[in-house]
Amino acid sequence: MVIFSLDSGKLLNVLQIPMSEVSDQAVEKYIECLAALRVLDISNCLKITSRGIEAIGRRCKSLDQLKRNMPPSLPPQGNNAAPIVVEDEALAIANTMPMLKRLELAYGLFSDLGLDAILTKCPLLRTLDILGSLNVRLDGDIEDRCCALESFREPWEPEYVEYSSSGGDYEYDDDDDADSDD
């Protein structure tokens, strides 16, 4: 983590500390000095929880961009294993960051409940990335609300279609490939 004087922190607009060891305790201790933040990247900061996010939201009233991308979680193991759903961070964002315009929450553990809260309580939101947030189903009107944003990256990677060479409904001409410059 970059060390700077507390006085200069009061002027700081952008803070990018992805993959740092910053904890909730450090956030709570120093957030008073960072009230002017507009852009914050705390992606992959595994020691920051909903408690730290809530402290950020309460103090950084001008925050309009938050990046909180996380590493992909392991899939549930066993026949009866259910995915882990954690709404706390999404709800902390929704309840304390109404001025957000851009939000990245890739690989979040929240579901439609947390996403609905964000869409409802962050009315200025224009850009949303929830790639890999596999607990999200986009049920009800949530998909329409997400698609109405200027930019929306859905939870699922686009599927790649493999075309069969066994005929089927696809035509394939070997002569076209021979003429190709690729």
Short overview:
Helices cover 29% and strands 10% of the residues. With 182 residues, the protein is an alpha/beta fold. The chain has a single domain, classed as Alpha-Beta Horseshoe (Leucine-rich repeat, LRR (right-handed beta-alpha superhelix)), CATH 3.80.10.
Structure characterization notes:
This protein has a single domain, classed as Leucine-rich repeat, LRR (right-handed beta-alpha superhelix), CATH 3.80.10.10. It is globular, with a radius of gyration of 21 Å. It is 29% helix and 10% strand. By secondary structure, it is an alpha/beta fold. The chain has a six-stranded parallel beta sheet with strand order 1-2-3-4-5-6, with no helix packed on it. The N terminus and C terminus are likely disordered. α3 runs parallel beside α4.
Please write out the topology.
Elements: H1 6-9, E1 14-16, H2 24-30, E2 39-41, H3 50-59, E3 65-67, H4 88-96, E4 102-104, H5 112-121, E5 127-129, H6 142-147, E6 151-153, H7 174-179
Parallel strand pairs: 1-2, 2-3, 3-4, 4-5, 5-6
Helix pairs in contact: 2-3, 3-4, 4-5
Shape: globular
Helix content: 25-40%
CATH architecture: Alpha-Beta Horseshoe
Helix and strand run: HEHEHEHEHEHEH
